[in-house]
Specification:
239 residues; alpha/beta; 9 helices; 6 strands
Length: 239
Amino acid sequence: MKTDASLQEIRVVVFDLDDTLFPERQYVQSGFRAVSAFLREQGLVEQDTFPAMWRRFIAGERSEVFNRVLEENEINPQKDLIKTLVTVYRTHHPEITLFPDARTVLDYFYERKPLALLSDGYMQTQLAKIVALKIKHYFKTIILTDQLGSDCWKPSQAGFQHVMQTLGDDPTEYVYIGDNPIKDFAAPRRLGWKSIYVKRPQGVYAGEIAPNERYEADFLVSDLYQAARLLDRDFTIPQ
C-alpha cells in the first residue's frame, strides 16, 4: 500500500456509499427491524425477532438469516415468504445517519472540488439510503451501478467510465474512496485513477484482504478526515 504519493492535484473526488459515508450495519439493523415489524403485523410471530436476526448477523451469517429465524419460531420458511421478507428489507425507509467525518468532509469539499457518488447495490435500496441521508445535493453525478445492469457492479469499470463521461475524461484527475478491497479499487486502478481505502474498524468488509496487488488501493486510512488531509493540506481535522 503506497503512502508517499501526493493527491493534492486531484480534481474530482468520487465516494462509495456503504461503510464509506455511513455505517452499513446501521442499515442492516434498520432493515431487520422493518422485517420484524412486518412479521408481527402479519400475525406470524408475537415477539420481536430483531435480536435473533442481529445475533446471527454479527456471528457472520448473511444469506439465510430470515430462514433460520423463521425456523426458530416454528414457521416454514417457504420460498414466497422469504422473497417477501427480502423485499420488505430492501424497500423499507431506512433509519440511518452519516458518519460524523463524512458530513464534515462533504461539507468541506462541496465548493472546492466536484464530488461524485458511485455505489453498488440494488437501485431502490441505494436510492432510499441517499434520500434518508439527505446527501444528493453534494454530488455533481450519482452512479448506481445497478441502473447499468448487474454485470456493471464493481469491479467492473463501467460505473467509473460513466463518471468520466460526465465530469471529464482524464483519469489522472480522479480519486475513488471506498471500503471494500475485494471489489472497490481494481477498476479505478486499471483506469488510472488514484484510490483511498477507508478501513473502519466496524466496517462489514474490514476483515477482507485484497486478492492481489491489482486490487489494492494507493492509500490506506482509518477515516475520512485522514483522506481529506491527503487531498487538501489546508483541511483541519476537528478536535
